[in-house]
Amino acid sequence: MNAETRLGFVAGLGAYFIWGSLPLYIRLMQHIGAADLLAHRVVWSVPTALIFIAIAANWRDVRAAVKWDKLKWLLISGLLIGANWGCYIWAVNAGRTMEASLGYYINPLVNVVFGMIFFSERLRIAQWIAVAIATVGVGILTVAFGRVPWVALFLCMTFACYSLIRKQVAIDSRAGFLMEVLLLVPFAVSWLAWVAGQPDARVFGDGGWDVALLVAAGPITSVPLILFALSARRLKLSTIGMMQYVGPTLQFLIAVLLFREPFGWTHAAAFGFIWTALVVFTTDSVMGEAKARRLARAARVS
């Protein structure tokens, strides 16, 4: 694993860990409306992104992101991630965190398909087996819910399409994220202005700690997305897809152990299938990389 790949792996793991813990923050802010919290996430992500860019002194990429050939794609990715955020906040507050986690379990499978379709990525036999096992697990979870899991499907497709676009847009992750949230800011500010005009307006919740926590929505939102974009440029889409099981697993555990959402034997079986798939895929990937390094060393020696 070279330095760039290692950086992508660590960044991706960090992003998924933060995303997996996000239900704790959303439930803490449950007294704030879903649309209000979404608007704050957008607004406070702007200064956070600017700080990251200033630290890196990377204004050249910001200027590049303003060009239409990149801006048009960032507008689409911004709308996709905004819709994803809004649906996720609503799902957690509606007691459907487990269904939301199902969406992110399905997402890696879609990423694998997208990787084959758009980037001609190939999977080894063991990796195909892993995808098949994971598919069985996702199917069991779907049956366990007893209905079409529209929340899961919406979250899955919006984020898979977002991943696809960000992998193709050759722009620094921080600059790209800044442009995405800037494009969403007019919608967010308009919503907060409308809320402020209502008789019982609570734009900043109950004040005090609510203000600090709403401002914290900026780094909580921007840091994992920047890490993800950094990872997406350095790893194969199929690898990113399988790594994403870390996020929904944390969400799943939070839903069951902390939020006390229903959990039965079918859920346990599905959970076992999905983690088995992750073990198979990861083991095969590590062995494949080790073999590639041995062949590379042998080629240099000869």
Shape: globular
SS elements, strand count: 0
Unreliable sequence segments:
none
Query: What portion of the residues fall into strands of 2 or more residues?
Result: under 5%
Protein name: EamA family transporter RarD
Pfam family, one: EamA
Family: Belongs to the EamA transporter family.
Subcellular location: Cell membrane
Walk me through this protein's architecture.
- The chain has one domain.
- With 302 residues, it is mostly helical.
- α2 crosses α4.
- It is globular, with a radius of gyration of 20 Å.
- The protein contains 13 helices and no strands.
- It is found in: Cell membrane.
- InterPro entries: EamA_dom, EmrE-like, RarD.
- Belongs to the EamA transporter family.
- Keywords: Cell membrane, Membrane, Transmembrane, Transmembrane helix, Transport.
- It is a multi-pass membrane protein.
Question: Which descriptors apply to this entry?
Answer:
302 residues, mainly alpha
Layout: helices, strands, pairs:
Blueprint: H1 3-28, H2 34-56, H3 59-65, H4 68-93, H5 97-119, H6 125-145, H7 150-168, H8 173-196, H9 209-215, H10 217-232, H11 237-243, H12 246-258, H13 265-301
Helix pairs in contact: 1-10, 1-12, 2-4, 2-8, 2-10, 3-8, 4-5, 4-7, 4-8, 5-6, 5-7, 5-11, 5-12, 6-13
In summary, what is this structure?
This protein has helices at residues 3-28, 34-56, 59-65, 68-93, 97-119, 125-145, 150-168, 173-196, 209-215, 217-232, 237-243, 246-258, 265-301.
